[in-house]
Design goal:
This protein has eleven helices and nine strands. With 382 residues, the protein is an alpha+beta fold. The longest helix has 36 residues. The protein is globular, with a radius of gyration of 21 Å.
């Protein structure tokens, strides 16, 4: 297997690194942290101009036809800069679900707008009682003469406050009652009957909880033809976890680099900290964890289009392992910076907070170790 990057992938990595170095400095991040929107519309426009919003969208809909590897390269660069723009919500989740489930007309209406930056999406699927179980959806969508009526609530909707449209999952009901199928509905964020309350996320960005109270939608709001959307949801979330894993790798690499630099210039008893053998061992352990996390993120990206069980096991293995590596690297970085590591004067704390947030998105390490084991038993039994 050739794991070397192609020339186009190398250019993508270089452009992402250049963008972060030149445009996404500490001052910009602090400004965004205090902004009610949580990100910069000017930067979002720049993403569109660079072609990053079009990256995974098929060429026939105005995209570049990239895959999970290209998304991972870009997300690792975003991790280095703690980018807070709604890329996961709009491009990795939203565009993927429309491309996977939508009709040709729905794709033509939405995907080109995502590519040019004029349409931002969010995915509302998590519910309070679900505990990361993607199949557990209590929100209901009842068929009516005019279309659909949605009732329920969703939590932890990534960047839902800034979305133009929200993809809402709901259990489909018809005149016979519950159908046992999950449907996805493209819902205007300002629709009557949809109420949201947003809040800042740990480590940057925002999320919201939404309530659906007798929300009426036309018949064509349902993505696709009404088939069960659960397999598509699982597919999209697994891809999102691979992308988030790559982002975490970028964060960890930045923490390792900054910690290594700090131990070279910080002196104790007249000698740099890095001259201490114990410190060197801890830095070596951090480097090993970063490399292991990078390998797991790459494996999840490579398996993103494999058979469902194989893809899901790779995604859960990456989420569990990277979450464990991330906490280790973050904690070691904080400790090796000493008291300075917990102040806002250095950005080490901000990077560590984003890693803590990563471990909770779409389920923590314990949840995914259990999911990985369960999927393994499924493979053996079949």
């Amino acid at each position: 297997m050739d794991l070397n990057l192609s020339d186009e992938q190398k250019l993508l990595r270089e452009s992402a690194e250049r963008f972060v170095t030149e445009s996404y400095d500490a001052d910009h991040r602090r400004k965004m942290a205090g902004d009610p929107l949580g990100f910069s519309p000017a930067v979002w426009k720049q993403f569109a101009e660079l072609g990053w919003l079009a990256l995974p969208i098929p060429e026939e809909f105005g995209g570049l036809g990239g895959g999970p590897i290209e998304i991972g390269i870009l997300m690792e660069g975003f991790g280095r800069g703690l980018v807070s723009e709604p890329y996961i919500a709009t491009v990795v989740l939203g565009a993927a679900l429309i491309e996977r489930c939508g009709s040709t007309a729905q794709k033509q209406a939405s995907l080109p707008k995502i590519a040019d930056g004029s349409l931002k999406l969010a995915f509302a699927h998590c519910e309070r009682a679900a505990r990361f179980d993607l199949a557990r959806v209590a929100t209901s969508a009842t068929k009516t003469a005019q279309g659909w009526r949605l009732t329920g609530s969703k939590i932890a909707v990534l960047d839902g406050h800034a979305a133009d449209e929200i993809i809402v999952s709901a259990h489909l009901y018809d005149h016979h009652g519950p159908s046992g199928r999950i449907g996805l509905f493209l819902t205007p964020a300002t629709a009557p009957g949809l109420a949201s309350s947003d809040y800042p996320r740990l480590g940057g960005g925002r999320a919201c909880n939404i309530g659906l109270s007798d929300l009426h939608l036309p018949g064509d709001a349902l993505l696709g033809d009404g088939k069960d959307a659960l397999p598509a949801v699982e597919w999209a979330v697994d891809r999102a976890m691979a992308a988030l894993g790559a982002e975490a790798v970028g964060i960890m690499q930045t923490l390792l680099d900054s910690t290594l630099e700090y131990t070279k210039i910080r002196k104790q008893f007249g000698r740099p900290l890095s001259a201490n053998q114990v410190i060197r061992h801890r830095l070596a352990d951090m480097a090993i964890q970063v490399d292991e996390a990078r390998s797991m993120a790459l494996r999840a990206a490579l398996k993103a289009d494999s058979a469902p069980v194989e893809r899901a096991r790779a995604a859960s293995a990456a989420k569990a392992k990277i979450g464990k590596c991330a906490r280790f690297v973050g904690e070691q970085s904080i400790q090796l910076h000493g008291g300075m590591g917990v102040t806002e004067e250095l950005e080490v704390g901000a990077y560590f907070k984003r890693l803590v947030a990563f471990d909770t998105l779409f389920g923590g390490s314990a949840h995914h170790y259990a999911r990985h084991a369960e999927l393994g038993r499924t493979t053996v039994s079949t």
